[in-house]
């Protein structure tokens, strides 16, 4: 049980989830770049852009909160001392 609860492993898992989320968002951004100029719809583009920006903000907030919580746990040694 000690191995699963190490703070460094939780941080790595959190960073991996963040990486996958950003990779999926960036992969879908390619569809905006491949739009033909004569098919360009500014309203759709702006709506999609706002949705992507909101998604990036939510992912960043998630990562920031998890990083701060893990940093707090590491500093206070809450998990490390409890499971020894």
How would you explain this protein's 3D organization?
With 84 residues, this protein is mainly alpha-helical. The chain has one domain (7-82). 80% of the residues lie in helices and 0% in strands. The chain contains three helices and no strands. Helix 1 (7-33) runs antiparallel to helix 2 (42-76). The protein is elongated, with a radius of gyration of 19 Å. The N and C termini lie close together (10 Å). The model has no long low-confidence stretch (mean pLDDT 76).
Q: Which descriptors would you attach to this protein?
A:
84 residues; mainly alpha; 3 helices; elongated
Strand content: under 5%
Question: Which residues sit in consecutive blocks of at least 5 with pLDDT less than 50?
Answer: none
- Rounded mean pLDDT is 76
Sheet of most strands: none
Q: Work out the number of β strands.
A: 0
Q: What's the order of the H and E elements?
A: HHH
Number of spatially distinct domains? 1
Summarize the SSE layout with pairings.
Elements: H1 7-33, H2 42-76, H3 78-82
């Amino acid at each position: 049980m000690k191995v699963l609860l190490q703070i460094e492993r939780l941080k790595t898992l959190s960073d991996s989830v963040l990486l996958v989320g950003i990779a999926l968002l960036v992969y879908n951004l390619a569809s905006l770049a491949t739009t033909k100029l004569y098919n360009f719809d500014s309203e759709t583009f702006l709506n999609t852009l706002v949705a992507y920006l909101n998604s990036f903000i939510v992912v960043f907030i998630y990562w920031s909160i998890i990083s701060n919580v893990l940093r707090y746990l590491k500093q206070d040694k809450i998990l490390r001392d409890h499971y020894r």
